[in-house]
Amino acid sequence: MSDVILSTRNLSRSFGALKATRNISIDLRAGEIHAVIGPNGAGKSTLIEQISGGLRSDSGTVHLVGRDVSALSTQARARAGLGRTFQISALAMEDTVLENALLGALGQSGRPWRFWRAAGEDRDLRARATAALERVGLAGVADQVTASLSHGQRRQLEVAVALTLSPRAFVMDEPMAGLGAEGSRVMTDFLDGLRGEAPILLVEHDMDAVFALADRISVLVYGQVIATGTVAEIRVSREVKEAYLGEGA
Amino acid sequence: MIGERYINGLVLAGFLAVPIWALAMDEPFTITLATRASVLAMAAVGLNIALGIGGLVSLGHAVFFGLGGYAMGILAHHAQTHAALDLGFLAIEGSRSMPVIWITAVTVSALAALLIGLLSLRTTGVYFIMITLAFGQMFFFFSISWSAYGGEDGLSIYVRNGFPGLDTLVPIQFFGLCFTALCAALLLHWRLRASPFGMALNAARQVPRRVETVGLNPMRLKLLAFVVSGAVTGLAGALFADLNRFVSPTMFSWQLSGELIVLIIIGGVGRLMGPVIGAALFVALEHFLGGLTDFWHVWLGAILLLIVLFARGGLIGILTGKDGPRV
Amino acid sequence: MKLKSLALSVTLAALAGTASADTKIGMITTLSGGGAGLGIDVRDGFMLAVKQSGRDDIEVVIEDDQRKPDIAVQLADKMIQSEKVDIMTGIIWSNLAMAVVPSAVSQGVFYLSPNAGPSALAGEGCHRNYFNVAWQNDNLHEAAGAYANGVGYGNSFILAPNYPAGKDALTGYKRFFEGELAGEVYTQLGQTDYAAEIAQIRASGADSVFFFLPGGMGISFLKQYADSGVDLPVVGPAFSFDQGILQAVGGAALGVVNTSQWNKDIDNATNAAFVESFEAEYGRLPSLYASQGFDTANLILSALDRAGVDDADAFRAALRAAEFDSTRGDFAFGPNHHPVQTIYAREVVQEGDVFTNRILGVALENHSDAYAGDCEM
Amino acid sequence: MSAILIIEQVLNGLQFGVMLFLMAAGLTLIFGVMGLINLAHGSLYMVGAFAAAAVAGATGSFVLALIAALAAAACAGTIVEIVVIRRLYRAAHLDQVLATFALILIFSEGTRWVFGSFPLFLDIPDYLSGPIALPGGIEYPLYRLALIGAGVLVAVELWWLTSRTRIGIQIRAGENDREMIAALGVDISRLYTLVFAMGAALAGLAGALVGAIQSVQVGMGEPVLILAFVVIVIGGIGSIKGAFIGSLLVGLTDTLGGVFLPELFKVFMDVGAATQTGSALASMAVYILMSVVLIWRPTGLFGMRA
Fold first, then answer.
1. What is the tens place of the pLDDT at every residue in A14-44?
2. Largest Cα–Cα distance in chain B?
3. CATH of the domain at A59
4. Which stretch of DSSP H or E encloses residue A218?
5. Burial letters for B55-65: b for 16+ Cβ neighbours within 10 Å, e otherwise?
């Protein structure tokens, strides 16, 4: 199992009487896109927060590249190689697109304490930030204020910031959210090419994108993983059908 | 609309021109007023680092202003009475030298900011405003009842402290000193805002969780900003005390903390020159309105209200037509 | 900041034409915010005397210090640097006086205090250009101590706010009071509720209460004390029983004894004329502070009759001689330029629907102060 | 120190706390419902006291004075809400702080303009004056007991209002979700004006009640305002229950600290130094209490978790 980059073991978290996640064990292997799907309220957001460090788990562990990061803070997990994107864009809206990318580059460099030299004049930071923007196709708007970007562009910038970190694994929270058909297609193509760089744990509602991208899928219902398997396996799984038909009906 | 750079240049030039004009016209008091404005501006520039970039609405910055003031007062008092300050394990000689006083003021206020910041930054929003206010009140009440250094009466220092090569009692020379210090504070703010640290801090104000997920610690960024901010305000406090040759607990009062915020908002939150414009206008209003009527606070209040309601982004916001950072 | 000082000052002589003003007096006092009542009284008393003198060679520049030391210092700078005043006066509060006076007098300006008398300026910190026309801060408290001895109190409960003037007050009382202390309490500055202290008084077994709580603090204390059912006799300095404040205390102050160097019924012609003309001019009874402002102006006028302010030594000697008709009757300066005067015990009474004071008797005759010996001019 | 004295001091602390609650309740309600920091709340307290003093002076009736205080503060609150506050609900806290700071300046100097610089007279009515004997030989002023009673009554009414009535349900809904309450067909801006006026009236009532045993003067609101903020921050902003418990904590800490700290220091210091040190520490006590609470629980005792 040396190719497992990110894994959770028996992660659980309750809010009062509500058990948001129960004994979740998921592996993310090198080179794969592992999608987590499930109806609303299944615990997907809680799981992401537990993995990225925003929420403390009641029990269970998270390992990243063989290292137990369960006790680490969000920023320590980021430094350990976890690249995360948000469902609702978390960007510094007053700053320029480039500055948002620079922030990621700065985090990756681990040296935010320099006071005097301007960040934009630092060649290494700039190169890293610009490269990430170019990859997602935002180089042309680098000097615009982020608040002026379209929704789709903001989604791209989310991914670009994660890219600047050169993470060992991506955790993406609904990168397609709010994108139109065309936007989803572009993003799908982009993520498809990204898996060779680092595996992606993808939480997504857009089933077309999931079936197009995922190597494996885990289905989350009421805080539990009810099935994990390849796209083909999941398509025919009885439990999954029940869970989803139950929701649909 | 005017570019912010031009405004900044104009403001600094104006700030320099008024006292020089006053010198030519033999109006030494106008120079004193300009000195007061530059010292208040510097205190607000300090606060602006925490507030404008870091989003830390501190209603307790008078603590650092007052500590700077008392650093001057206590050192000069001991020099004046030729009695060393005996701490039990260590005896400190008093000093009449501004550089020594300044270093002390910066050190003491930075340490206080570190301590207060460590405790206060656990809270956010209104709770942060109120806990900083609480620390301000503690210092205020302590200084009132601490009779060793004058209590509410404060400490009078009869002669302004010295600076090598200058006669600080000459108004224009002391103005030069304060103006230089203000420029240094502005330079610090400017460089810091563009630096990696400033960029990260600015992002931490807007989206702390983003900053965390790129591997940076927003708390530490804010704490450092608070310390730097406190140190600059502390230095301004030392200069303010030397301007008045007097320190008293009013330097710790919550009204003073409020006034520093007022200065920043008048000019424009987070703008480099916001506090400078604010302080110049405030000092001018204080004198112009104060002469017209005993009830000038009413008009000051009305002007502040108009600025908040109709001029988001302060005067610089109006002139440039651009909103400032949101705190 | 280009605003000239022209618009900033209220000037008398400006009406008559500035050219004729030979002597310029700068008055810094509290005219806005909390405590403005005291400054307004001092100003009104002072200006009444200037007006009655009929002189048009005096210009008075009046500025409001807002009770803030830094503003006061700045105004003093303005008066000395820009207005080039010869004489300064007007400050109400000790902490503001400490901020302004030492540097003003060292720059050659005369300063006459119409109210504050901090001990630091009476002892080692005395100055030949500094004159106090009111009292040294301890005086009225010392008189209260002397009065307490005279009426045979043997066990006093004493309280004052925890700040320097409060400590001076208790020290002053204890300096003269010969009995025991049933309790000694420092309250918070600006405190408005004294239930806890009154309970302590009730439990202390004292036979009398001495308090120094200026302004609103005194009003609160007296009202709550009167309502508490504790009926021990109370003595205090005049500050909580002044004309401006008494109406707000109301019946709660009736019968309370307080010490003062002035009262409106002191029997001399100057005082009678002052009380009458003040009431005619401003439509209210004069206060202690008004009398001090009035005396300060008359002292200056009397000295100006004898010497020009340009001749500092002669003018100083003329001030020191204090040959003016004081509303208090006899008035002289001690070696430290602080008054040597009689301090009376007064009682709060009701005249019609106005509360005011009536003199009971002398508390201290020709009293000086404890710091004069430390003063070397 | 006798048991009677201790009980009496506890009563004093309770009474002070209950008065603080009248201030704090409005403040916390306004923050909880509208998300507004209102520094000018102390000015409404002052308005109430001045109105009461003016009416009591003219009519001699304490009851009329209280009604006048309620009415004047509610009117002032309504006007302020419509002219200024309404524009600040969506503004940053910083703008709210500045705007209401400006209102303090206008109110304070405006009041001085109208009423002059000297304190006004307002006294306890005869039927409430003087001490009464409580069981155990305690003599305690009747008026202060009445204050405790009035404060507790208001607390109960507020609890009833917010938890049992239609308007209370609307208020609580408004705390959680502006859109939802608008969708329910409630006129949100009228609801806000109403809540603000109610908070103002409570502050005015407190001003009048306290004004009768203190000094009615310009600037009387600010010290109380700061303490009221301390109270709601300790209790957790937006929580009426928190405000009540916070009020009592602050009232007791302030009163008992002032009495017992100097006594405590007398154990190992000489009398003069002990009283000074003790009182210095006592004046800082409530602020120390507040920072300890916030360091322990960053959103107050009953505040919502972030």
1. 988 888 999 999 999 999 999 999 888 888 9
2. 61
3. 3.40.50.300
4. strand A216-221
5. bbbbbbbbbbb
Instruction: At A218, list the tokens.
Output: 């885990």
Q: State whether A241 and A181 are in the same domain.
A: yes
The whole-angstrom separation of Cα B145 and Cα D18 is 28
Q: Which two tokens stand for residue B177?
A: 């000193």
Containing domain of residue C204, as a range?
139-263+342-374
What the block records as the tokens of A105 is 């580059």
Inspect the interface and report whether the beta carbons of B194 and A119 lie closer than 8 Å: yes
Interchain proximity D279–C200, CB inside 8 Å: no
CA-CA distance, C361 to C257, in Å (whole number)? 11
Shortest CA distance from D295: residue in chain B: B119
Partners of chain C (3+ Cβ pairs below 8 A): B, D
Neighbors of chain D with 3 or more C-beta pairs under 8 Å = B, C
* C-beta neighbour count of C229 within 10 angstroms: 17
Residue B297 contacts residue C32 (beta carbons within 8 Å): yes
Decide if C73 touches B, using CB distance below 8 A: yes
Position C160 in a domain? yes
Among residues A139, A166, A193, the one where a domain terminates is A166
Cβ neighbours, 10 Å, residue B79 = 20
CATH number for the domain whose boundaries are B4-320: 1.10.3470
What φ, ψ does residue D187 adopt, rounded to 5°? -75, 100
- C87 SS3 class: strand
Taking chain C (377 residues) in consecutive chunks of 10 residues, what is each chunk's mean pLDDT? 36 41 90 82 96 92 88 90 92 91 91 93 92 95 96 95 88 95 89 91 94 90 92 93 88 93 93 96 94 97 93 95 93 95 95 92 93 90
- Considering only the beta carbons, identify the residue of A78, A84, A102 that sits closest to B199: A102
| Angstrom distance (rounded) from CA D195 to CA D161 | 12
Instruction: Residue B298: list chain D partners with CB under 8 A.
Output: 105-106, 109-110, 113
DSSP-based helix, strand, coil % in chain D, nearest 5: 75, 5, 20
Any idea what DSSP says for residue C259?
Answer: E
Question: Domains in chain A: how many in total?
Answer: 2
Residues 6+ apart with CB under 8 A from C216: C34, C192, D119, D214, D215, D217, D220
Total structural domains within chain C: 2
Q: What is the CATH number of domain D12-123+138-296?
A: 1.10.3470
Residue A74 and residue B209: Cβ atoms within 8 Å?
yes
Question: How many residues in total does chain A contain?
Answer: 249
pLDDT digits (tens, 9 = 90+) for C29-55: 998 776 788 999 999 999 999 999 999
CA distance C357 to C237: 12
Q: Is B293 touching D (CB cutoff 8 A)?
A: no
Domain that holds residue A237: 1-81+168-249
Query: How many beta-carbon contacts under 8 Å exist across A and B?
Result: 107
My answer on whether C9 and C98 are in the same domain is yes
Residues A65 and A175 in one domain: yes
Dist CA C100 CA C97 (whole Å): 5
B266: nearest Cα among B230, B300, B291: B300
Residue A86 inside a domain? The answer is no
**Which residue spans within chain D are E strands per DSSP?**
131-134, 138-141
| ipTM for this model | 0.85
In a domain, C96, yes or no: yes
* Per-residue model confidence as pLDDT tens for chain B (327 residues): 678 888 999 999 999 999 999 999 888 889 999 999 999 999 999 999 999 999 999 999 999 999 999 999 999 999 988 888 877 777 888 888 999 999 999 999 999 999 999 999 989 888 899 899 999 999 999 998 888 888 888 888 878 899 999 888 888 999 999 999 999 999 999 999 999 999 999 999 999 999 999 999 999 999 999 999 999 999 999 999 999 988 999 999 998 999 999 999 989 999 999 999 999 999 998 888 877 776 778 888 998 899 888 887 888 888 888 877 877
